[in-house]
Design brief:
This protein has 6 helices and 32 strands. By secondary structure, it is mainly beta. Strands 1, 2, 3, 4, 5, 6, 7, 8, 9 and 10 form a 10-stranded antiparallel beta sheet that branches. Strands 12-18-17-14-15 form a 5-stranded mixed beta sheet, with no helix packed on it. The protein has a 5-stranded mixed beta sheet with strand order 20-26-25-22-23, with no helix packed on it.
């Protein structure tokens, strides 16, 4: 056996081979589309006849999607179209089934140069040699063989009158041009007659040998002939039926050609497992817009994944299950995945699986402080006044200390040394980050010096120097020295003079009292 390589002469040579045919006014062209399966018949050996037949028996995916074990009748031809007009009987009749995908753009879900090929059984009950998956280039050579069948049939059909032997799904060569040639001549490339003759130019088995894709019935033809249909995806493409990117082709099922000329197809059951849908998503909560990546974790033989994201959007994929989806509105969403395959369907549903909050508002940092002036040590309360969606507050007090908070923004800080301190707050959230800085926001002054304090008559008099000029000070009083400072009573408020001097006179009498100076 041999394989002839051909890259670009098929269409032009085919047209040339048919130019001598006379166009018929009531012609009915043979119609096909990429991904359909071609069923071909011809006589072989010393029994070679004058007629060759080709029937379009529908998309290959229709056979893949049948339930496991289901049997369907093959349409597109009738037994009377084969005999007696074409052949006197069904013995010594070679038949084959094949299809191809020229490009993934023509047949979504399948990579370019995917091939369907029926391999005859030589032993009853035992599938024929399974084809080995090859790279796209060598599988492309076999695609050319198959294309010759379809293209030749369409060209020939357009030259013939409509009738039983020339329909939209069936065509046979008329006696006037058959000339005892196989359909590889008039229905393919006349320069390379082996094209469309699948007797020795099919895909390879595991040993690298070309597989004969044609089955020849015997005489007498009393027992049905069987050929197994394989889906052969080029390597490096994951086969969703097996989960593998290389190895053997996938066994779809088998065709049965009966002695009465009818044919059926039975979907395979071995190796077909019922799908079990499962998935995981990340992240499953956050603010809008939220992009969620859904990872398919389903098992079994799967040919289709249908996602329902719960927000009115769905997604169907015939190649792989994993996908992603962006939620644009706040809400709680129920997500479901339905998987389908030859073994049935399965659905996994997760209620309220994705929780989306309102779109994040960009943060704007702001704060106030009290008090912002005074003597060391001074405890300053810094109150957060920021707006927006915030998840983190970072304070810098300007004295070498920082605080990070992920719960709330307000903090306190004690300044123990004198100086002018710049305070900043950085707020961060899903909408971004923002910083506000206030220069010399906290001013800590040296403690003033008391020069004298005395009780004169019924009055208490105190005075001092070194106060911060222009800064407010207060005098507090209490009768209980152990009382907290916040409970002391303000009795006097003033401003340190330009020289830093200060003074206070209390006339409450000889009541036992205690006094202190604070700022402000």
């Amino acid at each position: 056996m041999h394989q002839t390589k051909h890259t670009g002469r098929l269409a032009c040579l085919l047209t040339a081979s048919l130019v001598a045919l006379v166009t018929t006014a009531n012609a009915l062209p043979f119609v096909y589309q990429y991904g359909d399966l071609a069923l071909g018949f011809r006589k072989t050996g010393t029994y070679t006849g004058n007629y060759e037949c080709v029937a379009d028996i529908g998309p290959g995916v229709n056979y893949v999607n049948l339930p496991a074990g289901a049997t369907t009748n093959i349409t597109g031809y009738t037994a009377t179209q084969i005999v007696p007009n074409s052949f006197p009987n069904f013995t010594n009749l070679s038949w084959s089934v094949c299809g191809y995908v020229v490009s993934k753009n023509y047949f979504p879900g399948y990579p370019a140069n995917t091939i369907w090929a029926a391999v005859p059984r030589s032993v009853t009950g035992v599938p024929g040699s399974p084809p080995n998956r090859l790279s796209a280039k060598p599988q492309g050579y076999t695609s050319l063989q198959i294309e010759g069948i379809f293209l030749g049939a369409a060209q020939l059909s357009s030259q013939l009158s409509a009738g039983q032997d020339n329909t939209a799904t069936f065509v046979q060569e008329p006696y006037s041009i058959a000339n005892n040639q196989n359909y590889g001549y008039y229905m393919a490339d006349p320069g390379i007659p082996s094209y469309a003759d699948l007797g020795g130019t099919g895909p390879e088995d595991t040993n690298g040998n070309l597989i004969n894709l044609e089955f020849t019935t015997v005489a007498p033809f009393a027992t049905a002939a069987i050929a197994d249909l394989y889906e052969i995806r080029p390597i490096a493409n994951v086969d969703p039926n097996t989960g593998q990117s290389s190895g053997l082709a996938y066994n779809v099922g088998y065709f049965t050609f009966n002695p009465n000329g009818s044919m059926t197809f039975t979907r395979a059951t071995s190796g077909v497992t019922a799908p079990l849908a499962a998935f995981a998503g990340t992240p499953t909560n956050g603010s809008a817009p939220l992009k969620v990546t859904f990872s398919d974790a389903s098992t079994g033989s799967i040919t289709n994944w249908l996602w329902n994201f719960g927000d009115g959007h769905t997604y169907t994929n015939a190649v792989s299950g994993s996908t992603s989806h962006t939620y644009t509105n706040a809400g709680s969403y129920t997500v479901s995945l339905m998987t389908a395959g030859p073994g049935g369907t399965s659905t996994s549903t997760s209620n309220n699986y994705v929780v989306v909050t309102a779109a994040a508002i960009a943060p704007v940092a702001a704060f106030t402080g009290s008090p912002t002036t005074g003597f060391a040590p001074l405890k300053v309360i810094l109150a957060d006044a920021s707006t927006g969606t915030i998840t983190n507050w970072l304070w810098n007090f300007g004295n070498g200390h920082t605080v990070t908070n992920t719960v709330s923004g307000s903090v306190t800080n004690i300044y123990t040394t004198t100086g002018n301190f710049t305070v900043s707050l950085t707020t961060t959230g899903p909408g971004g980050a923002n910083t506000v800085t206030k220069a010399n926001f906290v001013v800590i002054s040296p403690a003033p010096h008391f020069s004298s304090s005395a009780l004169v008559g019924n009055s208490f008099i105190m005075s001092g120097t070194n106060g911060p000029a222009g800064v407010q000070y207060r005098v507090l009083s209490t009768t209980n020295l152990m009382s907290a400072l916040v409970n002391w009573t303000p009795v006097y408020t003033n401003i340190f003079s330009p020289t830093g001097a200060f003074g206070y006179t209390n006339t409450t009498g000889k009541t036992k009292s205690f006094f202190t100076l604070v700022s402000p």
